[in-house]
Write a structure and sequence with these properties.
Layout lengths: L6 E11 L5 E11 L3 E5 L6 H8 L7 E6 L2 E2 L4 H7 E4 L11 H10 L4 H15 L14 H14 L4 E5 L7 H18 L2 E5 L3 H7 L2 E6 L2 E6 L1 H8 L4 H11 L2
Parallel strand pairs: 3-8, 3-9, 6-7, 7-8
Antiparallel strand pairs: 1-2, 1-4, 4-5, 9-10
Helix pairs in contact: 3-4, 3-5, 4-5, 8-9
Organism: Desulfurococcus amylolyticus DSM 16532
Pfam families: ABC_tran (PF00005)
GO molecular function: ATP binding; ATP hydrolysis activity
């Protein structure tokens, strides 16, 4: 595949077949432009997490090719990991570490010296966990663990941020806060964002373009307005239902 400097991510004919012939994704192709927020949406089992895990070098594809800023995720996974940061849907944290020690440890894998100090300060501010950062992570609620992990991903300012259900487990107020932060880091620091979400309202408010997955295939792609115009849907939920009924 030829690399285009316009794209942070290029996915071409990506296929993942699991044991017993179960299809994760099939001949999936899409591009994410540098500096945009791109959303992958679809029901459970549509291939969203499979796709994100392949891009994040955690899962090898059966066939196809993925380039992150021109770097092949299979041939050079170490270099790809230097360009990205990935937040899985069920992001864990070291249970016996305090929240602050978790932040320090995770960011020390990417920074050192004054850069590390600044990143730690930034993550602490983003997390807004206050004195809870002194407590072991095992005492945290799901929402607290989520925002702790997100604070590390944001403070690391990767070239490509990969977020699987970024506001899962968060209340409305924290969800709005995180969406605003994602947009801020995208606009102010030029971080490209690839995210998946079941929250259609979140995707509408946050994403520049959207790819709709169904049974491992891309059935539509475009801006929110383009997809509404194409289908006559009033929102993304209606758009998806109409496309699914038509078969793409």
């Amino acid at each position: 595949m030829n690399y285009s400097s316009n794209y942070a991510l290029q996915v071409v004919n990506l296929t993942k077949i699991y044991g017993r012939g179960s299809i994760g994704v099939k001949e999936l192709s899409f591009n994410v432009k540098q500096g945009e927020i791109y959303g992958l949406i679809g029901p459970n089992g549509s291939g969203k997490t499979t796709t994100l895990r392949i891009i994040a070098t955690l899962l090898k594809p059966t066939s196809g090719e993925v380039l992150v800023y021109g770097v092949n995720v299979v041939e050079n996974p170490f270099k790809v990991r230097q360009l990205i940061n990935y937040l899985p849907e069920e992001a864990g944290a070291y249970r016996d570490l305090t929240g602050l020690d978790f932040i320090k440890f995770m960011l020390s894998l990417r920074y050192n010296g004054r850069e590390l100090e600044k990143a730690i300060e930034e993550a602490v501010e983003i997390s807004d966990l206050g004195d809870n950062l002194k407590k072991p992570v095992r005492t945290y609620s799901k929402g607290m663990k989520r925002i702790l992990a997100l604070s590390v991903v944001l403070a690391s300012k990767p070239k490509l941020m990969i977020l699987d259900e970024p506001t899962s487990g968060l209340d409305v107020e924290k969800s709005i806060y995180i969406r605003e932060l994602i947009r801020k880091y995208n606009r102010e620091y030029g971080v490209t964002v690839l995210l998946s979400s079941h929250n259609m309202l979140e995707v509408e408010r946050l994403c520049d373009r959207v790819g709709m997955l169904y049974k491992g295939k891309l059935i539509a792609e475009g801006t929110i307005e383009e997809l509404k115009s194409k289908t006559g849907g009033r929102d993304l939920e209606e758009v998806f239902i109409k496309l699914k009924t038509r078969g793409g």
